[in-house]
Automatic annotation (TrEMBL):
Keyword match Repeat: yes
Keywords, comma-separated and alphabetical: Repeat
Organism: Lactuca sativa
Compositional bias (Pro residues): 35-47
Highest taxon, organism lineage: Eukaryota
Family: Belongs to the PPR family. P subfamily.
Listed PROSITE patterns: PPR
InterPro entries given in the database record: PPR-containing_protein, PPR_rpt, TPR-like_helical_dom_sf
Name the UniProt record assigns to this protein: Pentacotripeptide-repeat region of PRORP domain-containing protein
Region of interest: Disordered: 26-47
UniProt keyword annotation of Iron-sulfur present: no
Coiled coil, from the record: none
Positions annotated as PPR repeat: 221-255, 287-321, 353-387
Gene Ontology MF, one: mRNA binding
């Protein structure tokens, strides 16, 4: 039996928590089939390329005449020679992702043409209106879409997420009643998908309100409560998460190990180490994932002695560690300056994966050993382990610092490179703001974003740029940095070739 939890006081003991995935009591939302009424036949147009000049002309008219009378706007659009397809409508929505008026005006124009919406197009339009926070128009469109029989689960998620973000809680509940009036019914699977979406957006309180208000019509199951527990843990509200836990137990649902680990992780994140360990010690049926979580956080908090004890206990229970656990231990040893022990663990692993190499690189960088970390980077490539974006970001931060390198030599001045990348990516406003902050030396320049830097150059231009850049870096003696950028450029070149091959194959098929 699982006892109730109270997180405003020390944790009570949990007699047993088993590794279950809600076999009979909980169902994954994907297992449900929403009993939606049949939609009218709206076959999407064959995917044909949109003429860029036509798209630009229509977007210009929509932007310039969005406040004009409807008749004048429709006349201007009718004079444009363009094919109104579903793809064209979606492209219009993409051009105005946060502006409801041009999209809605184009929707009104489409109703005067031989154009039938599909669930994809109406959901895209609903998403734009939702992002612009026009709640009244959103509600009108919801009723219009319901009458048209184009409602899908995504419609539920877009509408409820928008209403919940705007704290329109009455409308959130009323939405389900309105959809029931259109013949879509009260469906647990749809509710679970909505609750999962809200909790993923850190709207756990709003999700709980919807569940409670709809309980008379839709009885929540174990998956519903699991989503709520994770949602409250994500926002750091363990008191509310424990209340949901207790309700779940009282209604006879089993709490699976994922829910327990989520609570433990939240306790670790909020520096409530003792309570997390009490929860860990109260679990009878411990598995690899739980040990992995505890060892990771112990090593991260510098509690290496505790981590070794938990690791030894795991081995005594016959549970073999995986590379993720060993990578955490390697990082823990390196963080404490115990380099030889860390390398002994790494050398004992027959087939190390990227978590082991990341543990080595991160630990060495913490010891200010960027050159050794780069050697580990070369070794992982030699042994066939492909670096990720996180690998490159760690190495760049280790060599250049988290605020980037500002040197007199323009060849290695990362302010210049970053601004150039912003301009080439079409982000001139961001580039000008960054330059203003750099020029005004009285204002501290924010942290250099290596993720954006690499992302903006992850294209054909970046392939050439990284190749030239690596040569320039080697010329000034920065061989490690040169190797890092050369490897990233090779990765981008391979990716571009693969994309080009895929495009060629798709053209051959068509």
């Amino acid at each position: 039996m699982i006892r109730r939890l109270q997180f405003h006081s020390p944790l009570t003991r949990i007699s047993s928590v088993h590794h279950r995935l809600f076999h009979s009591t909980t169902t994954n939302p994907s297992d449900y089939n929403t009993p939606c009424p049949p939609s009218p036949a709206t076959t999407p147009d064959p995917l044909t390329p949109v003429n860029p000049s036509h798209l630009l002309r229509v977007c210009t008219i929509l932007y310039q005449q969005q406040d004009s009378p409807e008749s004048r706007l429709h006349t201007s659009l009718s004079r444009c020679d363009f094919d109104l397809t579903h793809e064209f409508f979606l492209q219009i929505c993409n051009k105005f992702p946060y502006s409801w008026k041009p999209v809605y005006k184009f929707h009104k124009f489409s109703q005067t043409q031989t154009f039938n919406h599909t669930p994809v197009t109406v959901n895209k339009m609903l998403d734009v209106v939702g992002k612009s926070r026009n709640i009244d128009l959103l509600w009108d469109l919801i009723n219009e879409i319901g009458h048209s029989r184009l409602v899908t689960d995504k419609t539920y998620k877009i509408a409820i997420k928008t209403l919940a973000s705007a704290r329109e809680m009455k409308k959130c509940v009323e939405f389900f009643h309105v959809m029931n009036g259109f013949g879509y019914g009260y469906n647990l699977g749809t509710l679970n998908k909505v609750i999962e979406t809200l909790c993923g957006c850190k709207l756990a309180e709003e999700a709980k309100h919807i569940v409670l208000k709809l309980k008379e019509w839709i009885k929540p199951d174990g998956f519903t409560y699991k989503c709520l527990i994770r949602g409250f843990c994500d926002v750091g509200d363990l008191v509310e998460a424990s209340k949901i836990w207790n309700v779940m137990v009282d209604e006879g649902f089993d709490v699976d190990i994922d829910g327990v680990e989520k609570m433990m992780e939240t306790l670790f994140k909020t520096n409530r180490f003792d309570e997390a360990m009490k929860l860990f010690q109260s679990i009878d049926d411990l598995g690899l994932s739980t040990y992995k979580l505890v060892i990771h956080w112990m090593c991260k908090k510098g509690k290496l002695g505790h981590a070794r004890k938990v690791f030894d206990e795991m081995r005594e229970r016959g549970i073999q560690p995986d590379c993720t656990i060993l990578g955490s231990l390697i990082y823990g040893f390196l963080s404490n300056g115990r380099i030889r022990e860390a390398y002994n663990i790494a050398e004992s692993i027959e087939r190390p994966d990227i978590s082991v190499y990341h543990g080595l690189i991160k630990g060495l960088l913490r010891l200010k050993k960027a050159n050794e970390a780069t050697n580990v980077f070369r070794e992982m490539i030699r042994r066939g382990c492909e670096p990720t974006m996180h690998t490159y970001v760690m190495l760049l931060q280790g060599h250049l610092g988290k605020r980037g390198r500002k040197g007199d030599d323009p060849l290695i001045n990362f302010d210049t490179i970053f601004v150039g990348g912003l301009v080439k990516a079409g982000k001139s406003l961001e580039a000008s703001k960054y330059v203003e902050r750099v020029m005004n030396r009285g204002v501290e320049v924010p942290r250099f974003d290596y993720n954006k830097f690499l992302h903006y150059y992850s294209n054909e231009e970046g392939v050439v740029m990284f190749e030239v850049m690596s040569k320039k870096l080697r010329e000034v003696g920065l061989f490690d940095l040169g190797d890092i950028f050369e490897r990233y450029g090779q990765k981008m070149a391979t990716r571009e070739k693969r994309r080009e091959r895929d495009r060629s194959n798709s053209q051959i098929v068509t």
